[in-house]
Amino acid sequence: MAPAVALPVLLALLALVALVAPGLGAAPGCDHPAHRWCRSRDAAVACQVESSCPSLPRPAAAPVELSLYYESLCPACREFLVLKLFPTWLLLPEEMLNITLVPYGNAQERNVSGKLDFQCQHGPEECLGNMMEACLMHEAKNFSTYFPVIFCLESGSSVTKNLEACLQIYAPEVDSGRISACVQGDTGVALMHHNAQLTEALDPPHQYVPWITINGKHTDELQAQAEASLLALVCHLYQGEKPEACGGSKAPRIPPGCRR
User: Fold this and answer.
1) CA 245 to CA 187: how far, in whole Å?
2) Which site among 21, 36, 103, 241 is 20 to 30 Å from 112 CA-CA?
3) 115-119 and 211-214 as β-strands: parallel, antiparallel, unpaired?
C-alpha cells in the first residue's frame, strides 16, 4: 500500500498543477486558488476535491427524533425514563438527540356537561401527575430545564408531592405557583387535551406504554432496541460524527409496559 500523502504536500501539488496546467488543475466552475480548495466545504465542492480534504468539518447531521408516550405512574414508563432516557440524554450532545415527552398514555378523555374530564389507568393521582408534568413543560419552555425536574419526579417516592423539592434542586428559576395555576385552570386541561390528540393520532395506535417512536416511526423492533440499549440505538441511527459515548451499551431489558 502506498504511503498516505500529507495534506500540505497534497495542497502544494494541487497548487503546482493549477499554475502549470490550469485546465487540468481545477474543475469547471472552480474559481478558487488551489491553496484555498480545502479551506471551506463550498470551495472543496466547487473544485471537486472533497475526498482530498480530510480536515473539512462534516456537515451538520439531523438529530435522532425520539418521542415518548407515557403515564406518570406507570412503573415501566418511570423505569425507562429514569434508567434509559435520562442517562442517554446526559451522555450525548444536544444536537444528537431531540426528545418529545407526551404524558397521557392509556388515559381516556370525556366530555362531561361541556367540560373535559380525564380518567387515568392508575387513578386520579396519575392524572394529576400527567398534568403537572405537562404544565411544567409549558412553563419552563426549555427542555434542558424541565427534563431534569421530570427525572426527579419520576425517580422519587411521589410524582405529585415532590414538585417543590425537585424545582429547588434542578430549576429554582421556575415558579411553582405558575405550575399550580396551570394545573388548576383551563391551561392544564388544554394541555392534556392536546396530549390526548397526539396520543390518539399515533399510527399504528399505541398498545401499551411506554410507547416509543423514533424519527416518527414505531415498530416492535425499534421499541425492543430502545428498551434494550437506547444509547446504542441512537448512536447507530445518528448520521453525524459520533461522540466518545457511542462505544456500545448493554443493559437489562425494561419490564413489559402497562397495556391498555
Assistant:
1) 39
2) 103
3) unpaired
158-198 confidence digits (pLDDT tens): 999 999 999 999 999 999 999 999 999 999 999 999 999 99
Q: Collect all residues with Cβ–Cβ distance below 8 Å to 211 and sequence separation of at least 6.
A: 68, 69, 70, 105, 202, 218, 223, 257
Grid cell of 180 as nine digits? 399550580
The answer to whether 74 and 210 have CB atoms below 8 angstroms apart is yes
Tell me the C-alpha distance between 68 and 85, whole Å: 9
Cell representation of residue 89: 440524554
Radius of gyration of the CA atoms of the chain, in A: 25
**All cell numbers assigned to 88:** 442517554
Contact (CB, 8 A) for 37 and 28: no
- Distant-in-sequence, close-in-space partners of 74: CB < 8 Å, separation ≥ 6: 105, 121, 122, 126, 209, 210, 257, 258
Cell match 405550575: residue?
Answer: 179
